[in-house]
Write a structure and sequence with these properties.
327 residues, alpha/beta, 7-stranded parallel beta sheet, globular, binds NADPH dihydro-nicotinamide-adenine-dinucleotide phosphate, binds the ligand N[C@@H](C[C@H]1CC(C(=O)O)=NO1)C(=O)O
Length: 327
């Protein structure tokens, strides 16, 4: 059987993760990497991986079955998502939750016009955690749902800080607040504000001559990302960032606590413990690339979210094999 030909757009943490993840999927192959930087300066992990300018991607429409968009959600995907869905089947990890409805509309319009499938907001949150929030409220209509992340490195928040003028490098750790977790685990079903569930710790390397106070203010007031949280900004050196903050572990859990009709207390929980946030997210992206390819083969078009994709399409097994081997 011919393999699904994958293109990577944007070669950062996710881009590298997708390249590594392809080797774990026998039904896929890497067609190439596309970057806005000078291709000569971008070094893929494997040998003989073509790296090309993103501007040239229009010439590769017959060579790629699904593009994985690995750009940042804060300022890359809002432009790249619709532009590329017009030409290719795409999968992305767009995670600015407040902006998902408008992003869906923009990508859907482009994908329909191009006759492509574009699965947006794939990963773990949004993504697998979204699915588990849905299962929770569908199965336990009387109850409450909670999502906790970390302690770990949020790639979306780290990317958002790196886009602030004057920032040379940055990472952001998300820390769940113990009291909130204890109250939820204790079955109290508390009403918790955003600020009562997590706090955020940022480690920032400034460009030469940048104004630290202005950078700090731009971070802590940033809508959608930091404005609703207690956020600490720590300025450090480039060497310290490289030495102490290279790992990208993360994780968290979704919990639904409620009562079924006869009154019994029920708790559903889904948790992740991730040694590498990008490594895991990339694997989710590839499973949805398999589904996007199959949806296109079935004649589907337009934008989808994880709520629209039948789980069986994610598996390398056939539908019959799933019934015989996994159900
Ligand atoms: N839904 C989910 O669960 C998750 C979503 N995400 C999303 O993934 C997005 C991407 O994360 P991540 O891969 O960590 O972001 P990076 O900052 O590593 O990369 C973002 C883009 O920046 C460019 N870039 C990468 N390295 C460099 C460099 N050294 N110098 C200049 N430009 C560079 C690349 O584009 P180019 O090659 O064109 O220059 C790349 O696509 C996040 O913004 C987040 O929104 C992440 C994790 C989970
Ligand atoms: N999208 C997140 C994945 C999870 C992590 C997270 C957070 O720490 O705020 N929110 O969602 C990421 O970019 O890592």
């Amino acid at each position: 059987a011919t393999k699904i030909r994958i293109g990577i757009v944007g070669y950062g943490n996710l881009g590298r993760g997708v390249e590594s993840a392809i080797a774990q999927n026998a039904d896929m192959e890497l067609a190439g990497v596309f970057t806005r930087r000078d291709p000569a300066g971008v070094r893929p992990l494997g040998p003989d991986v073509p790296v090309r300018p993103l501007d040239a991607i229009g010439g590769f429409r017959d060579d790629i079955d699904v593009l994985i968009l690995c750009g940042g959600s804060r300022s890359d995907l809002p432009q790249q998502g619709p532009a590329l869905a017009a030409w290719f089947n795409t999968v992305d990890s767009f995670d600015n939750h407040a902006r998902i409805p408008e992003y869906f509309q923009a990508v859907d319009q482009a994908a329909r016009a191009g006759g492509n499938v574009a699965v947006i907001s794939v990963g773990w949150d949004p993504g697998l955690f979204s699915l588990n929030r849905l299962f929770g409220e569908a199965v336990l209509p009387q109850g409450a749902s909670y999502t906790f992340w970390g302690k770990g490195l949020s790639q979306g928040h780290s990317d958002a800080i790196r886009r602030v003028p004057g920032v040379k490098g940055a990472v952001q750790y998300t820390i769940p607040l113990d009291e909130a977790v204890e109250r939820v685990r204790g079955g109290e079903l508390p009403e918790l504000s955003t600020r009562e569930k997590h706090r955020r710790d940022c480690y920032v390397v400034l460009e030469e001559g940048a104004d630290a106070a202005a950078v700090q203010e731009a971070i802590v007031t940033m809508p959608d990302y930091f404005a609703d949280y207690d956020t600490a900004v720590n300025f450090i050196g480039e060497e310290q960032l490289r030495r102490d903050h290279a790992g990208m572990p993360h994780g968290g859990f979704v919990i639904r606590s409620g009562r079924t009709g006869e009154g019994a207390a029920q708790v559903m929980e889904y948790s992740l413990k991730l040694g590498s946030n990008p490594g895991f997210t990339s694997s989710v992206l590839l499973a949805y690339a398999r589904a996007a390819f199959r949806l296109r083969q079935q004649g589907s078009a337009g934008a989808k979210t994880v709520f629209d994709v039948a789980p069986g399409l994610l598996s390398p097994r056939s539908a019959a094999a799933l019934r015989e081997e996994l159900l």
